[in-house]
Amino acid sequence: MEFSVQEFLLFSYGITLLILCPLIFLAAFIDSIAGGGGLISLPAYLFVGIPIHTAYGTNKFSSTMGTLMAMGNYFRKGYVDYSAALSGGIAAFFGSLAGTFLALSLSPYVLQISLMIILPLVAIFMFTRQSLKKIFSINISIFSGINVQDNLRLKIILCSLIGLVLGTYDGFFGPGTGMFITILLNSIIKLNLIKSAGTARVINFSSNIASMTTWLVNGKILFPVAIPCMISAILGGFIGSRLAIKIGSKFIRIVLAIVASLLFIRVLTDIINF
Fold first, then answer.
1. Per-residue pLDDT tens over the stretch 212-221
2. Which domain holds residue 244?
3. What is the DSSP string of 38-52?
């Protein structure tokens, strides 16, 4: 039995979605709880053979929709700090624009080399002794003795810095952004862990929107793949955020630890294969 060209293309398309959709669902599920879903989704798009710039844009499209669904759940349950979300979100938007334009300006080869430089740096941050304490105990503040919640000006400044730095990172690379924001909001701004997760989704959504729009304008989103993956991401974001709200801080800590471990494994694998 021989396939026509159209049948072969349709078959290949079906196989691509069969691989991608479950992985994107899982990525959005993890991302809605603790961040770090890009550790799964971005490599998944690259694995099926999508060129790196298009993989970035398509990944950002689906992850933005998943973040939107998760953000809505946290908003409805009141787990968002508005001043932190607004100041961090505005800064993240502009940071993400800068990061995405930088990624667009690089050739695929240079972009891959850049990622190999970034991943070990992220690993150093994540797996130093102090970073491990922040991930697992989530109760350390570098502003010991200062009640950031009582100082609105300081809170806005700190959230803006968090948004700007991690928004730029999100635009250029992405994986782990939500996790980093959650940890920093909890340890520095002293939001409780569930509210940190909810507020992080708002800031992350702002950076996602800026990055997604930039990739879209530059024609780097593969919509036949992006739309089915978007549906998977919405489902993953909805279910994951509801579980986080229902089960609470202990569940978020567990997922944070798992995502941190996956990030470390991912870094080691990339270094070994480089």
1. 999 999 999 9
2. 33-109+123-273
3. HHHHHHHHHHTT--H
